[in-house]
Amino acid sequence: MVDTNLQQNSGHDELESERKQQLKAFDDTQAGVKGLVDAQVSKVPQIFIIPDEDIPCKTSSPSSSTHVQIPVIDLKFEHLQEDVVARKDIVEKIRVASETCGFFQVVNHGIPKEILDEMIEGVRRFHEQPHDVKKEYYTRDFSRKVIFGSNFDLYQSKVANWRDSLFFVMSPQSPNPQELPSVCREITFSYSEHVQKLGVTLLELLSEALGLKSKHLEEMECCKGHSVLGHYYPACPEPHRTIGTIEHSDPDFFTILLQDHIGGLQVLYQNQWIHVKPVEGALVVNLGDILQLISNDKFKSAKHRVLANHVGPRISVACFFSTHLQPFDHVYGPIKELLSEGMHPLYNETTVRDYVLHYITKGLGIGISALQDFRR
């Protein structure tokens, strides 16, 4: 029995050593997943293959995409401040979505469609540049304000995701314009300004949905910082064997997501994977772990994922409202105004930075939310 155990341990160690070598070899190319596609791979490399039990077709309900829809909310942005009746209705719709699935889409949000389209194209232009141009930005130094990479948790996660990413820290201290790639510089700053304004408005509505004064979450500095992440999901030769982005929740206050027409985003709701179908001109809003923590579980941070696809590239742009990359020491815990004798704090206090560091250390796709480690 001892000899058998030793053999098993030795075999596991060999497999783990081989996997680490494969990860490093992929990382060293600095070409990302698109580099594999450009090399015309016909099979998904081993580091991207997900276990059979995690294959999306085996974890999806066949009825999920037809019977449940993520709500699409008309923000009536131009009239939101003066139309009291409409605002009350919008707040109620946001409350219901936030308390149930933690996901909703918004239209008439104030950002012109040409800005949305150009932001998608800007991300495309960057990722489709020659490798020699892109690799200038390739790094695993997460203190930088501009980062090109593939899988931030490449060495922590159990499986690599079929996607590359371009990351910008935009607020509260924006980068020097010359730090951004020229092919997407102007649109990134423009989109960032628009999405920051929308973020402030959403925080007001979320505050009111919690029964708080409209400026409550803003005064807690929930929109003090934001970053922009441009994902590029190349067409995959074996989409049934891998995943675009493995299931996870976001470690921020909330995320505003711009996605193209291809689709593939799913959210876990009532143990079913629900397709978040692209809506022309819409933005997806999903709540993050920190908002669930400070709302004391009143609002939900839902798990979501992105499927790999034969069709591509799929492009999306996520704007994360978070301060983890800034030297802020603001401590967050359940909001006192939401507590009562019958509702005690469910979470320990933490800074956003400490929470995100813990989240990154765990990596994506571990099955258990990092938020659970902060429960009392």
TrEMBL record:
Its cofactor is Fe cation. Keywords: Iron, Metal-binding, Oxidoreductase. It comes from the Eukaryota. InterPro entries: DIOX_N, IPNS-like_FE2OG_OXY, IPNS-like_sf, Oxoglu/Fe-dep_dioxygenase_dom. Residues 224-324 form the Fe2OG dioxygenase domain. One of its GO terms (molecular function) is metal ion binding. Pfam families: 2OG-FeII_Oxy, DIOX_N. The keyword Repeat does not apply. SUPFAM superfamilies: Clavaminate synthase-like (SSF51197). Belongs to the iron/ascorbate-dependent oxidoreductase family. This is Fe2OG dioxygenase domain-containing protein.
